[in-house]
Amino acid sequence: MLRYFIHIALFLAVLWTSGQVSVLVTLAQDKGEETASVNSPRALLIRRAEAGERLAQEQLANAYATGQGVELDQTQACIWWKRAAQQGSAVAQNELGYSYEHARGTVQDYSQALYWFRLAAEQGLAAAQFNLANIYQHDSARDYSQAATWYRRSAEQGFAPALNNLAMLYQHGWGVSRDPSEAFKLLSQAAEAGDVSAQYNLGEAYVSGGGVKKDFVRGLDLLRKAADKGSSAAFNGLGYLYESGKGLPRNDTQAAAMYARAAERGFARSQACLAFLYFEGRGVPQDFTQAAKWFSRAAEQREVFGEAGLGRLYYSGQGLPRDYRKAAEWFRKAAERGLAVAQVNLGYLLEHGLGIGVDYVEAYKWYQLAAVGGYRPAEDAMKSLAEVMTQQQLQEAKSRASSLREQNRDIDGGTTWGGDAVESNIGSHTIAASR
After folding, report:
1. pTM (two decimals)
2. What are residue 416's phi and psi, to 5 degrees?
3. CB of 259 within 8 A of CB of 236?
């Protein structure tokens, strides 16, 4: 069974752009005969762009990208961003980099994204410096040292998202020496500048006491500010506080409402949390069909608790047809990412041959992996199973567990592999993503 449910907000992707290019020429809104005129604003702008005028190329690209005065057409936008970028426009280079990174009007190509972001960044464009750093932090070219360098250059220009992300590098010691005090200083600057990710992160720090003295009043104020700006992580955090009664009066109805706000926005952890409330009938009427719906949506995003939740429903036949094979599949997905409760559930199915062949060695392996994190039910299961296993089987199971733990030491799926169990908290820090 899912005996506990840890609520940890996932990293939040916040898109960022260098800013809309100011369209100095007012494009005709009437797309009828006026726009077909050779002297219409649209026709004049196109002629200027085709003649090689860089500003006109930027304006036309922006028009196609936003649908202002023309039909929305990201492919055409990309074409004109590229023409302006080739003439040295830092704004266009940044937009073109984003287009390549996110397959906006062109094929996805991280090497091209890196190339164009760098050109714009070297011209001093803060947004491009941020985007370049973000590529180095998250994508295949991962290099935390380079990420720190470019976040710092962007932050020195007062770019709030860069201040937030640089703070996270200092908080975790990624590419820089770990320095919680520097992280707090940068985070405070970003939050003061109105950056929503920083407001959430700083609020979470005050509420949990992470690197700063606990201050629920200050923390809740920041979380609510972030939520007012649409931060799904903040809604998730508020939901957890209402559900747990930490810093707020326990109120499952309010918790469900907060989770629902984030879940509807596609925030995977909140989808799993909302599903769990439907499963238990807390704050909402008990509804296994709704639980299945939200666990499924979370699992589609590889949310570990969503995967474990689906396994639980397939095992019990609540909200979904009973199917031990599918239960085993979903428990395995979550177990392989380090979630102790899923490891125990998978072990149970292996021990009893439900939906999968009986395998004491594999069952014991999963029990042991869960027990390393301090999950008590796993310890009890190990003791019981050991009574019917041979010494050779026990040695093999322990060897497999040790090997898998070493292979997956960096995986974070809700518990740590070979470390302490993760305590319940309102969330991981949010990291702004590029644009």
Report:
1. 0.77
2. -95, 145
3. yes
CA 258 to centroid of chain Cα atoms: 18
User: Distance between CA atoms of 190 and 362, rounded to whole angstroms?
Assistant: 48
pLDDT, one tens digit per residue, over 108-151 is 999 999 999 999 999 999 999 999 999 999 887 789 999 999 99
Contacts of 207 (CB under 8 A, 6+ apart): 214, 216, 219, 220, 223, 237, 241, 246, 247, 426
Q: Output the six-digit token pair for 42.
A: 């649209």
N residues, the chain: 435
